[in-house]
Amino acid sequence: MWFKVWQLASPNLQDYCFHDVLLVDECEDMSAAVLEAFRVQKTPKIFAGDPRQRMNPLAEGSFETLSCNVKKCFRLTKVMRFGPQIGFVADCLIRMAFGDQEISVVTRRKKDELLNADEMSTHKPVAILARTERRLFWEIIRLMSHSEDGKVHQRLGAFAGGMAAYRLQDYRDILALQQGRREQMKRWTNFASLQEFEAAAERDRNEEILEKIGVVKDHGEKLAEYLDRIERFCKTKKGDWTMDFVFGVARKAKGLQWDSVILLDDFLLHGDVGE
Fold this sequence. Notes:
Layout: H1 2-8, E1 22-24, H2 32-39, E2 45-47, H3 62-67, E3 78-79, H4 84-98, E4 106-107, H5 117-120, E5 126-130, H6 133-145, E6 147-148, E7 151-152, E8 157-159, H7 168-178, H8 194-203, H9 207-219, H10 223-233, E9 234-235, E10 245-249, E11 260-263
Parallel strand pairs: 1-2, 3-4, 5-10, 5-11, 8-9, 8-10
Antiparallel strand pairs: 6-7
């Protein structure tokens, strides 16, 4: 609401900071009001964004509308983070999923390779990335319970960006709400039931909260035990390269790099890509 009020006030960004060119990045996650406030500025403007990397569901369609009202549109297809083998796979997925035959992913001269699960154990830490926290939790729990020869092996993990970024206390609060223990909650104490809380999150299209509610529904009363184990299993330090695993969701790992990465299976929103 406040962004809309700000846009309606017709702000002149020169009053905030003098500039010759206005460069606006991450446009795919900006609301229509914010983008319009930038669009009407008098200085030359460059907007950068990728709708396929959108994390904010409330920004749906905003950047696409802006793209129809600019003088020139450039496709940035060069990727600096990986080499030709992974670039080829990415290119094939884009073409199959979106039918886009006009562009190709151009990569840097960097050696890379596709590894199987056994080979990745020698390339630590292994980053495990999911689209949703719900899928990520299943994988963390699986790895914590993994055993070989009947023995549970001690492994260490970390969260990309630090454990605090994933607010594990939120899961405890939602679990308490589900079980009617509202007096133990630290947040959202104004909701009388989990059903009421979930309805509010759906109304607000709050995907992050809905993911957390999904995790609570998946694991029920066992979740408290899992959270205790996760806190012991995953250190709170940021970027601890002595770990076996680094866990994260894509929206909280943008800009980060690891030598070995596993993408979990919840990125395919529209069914399987190919057979």
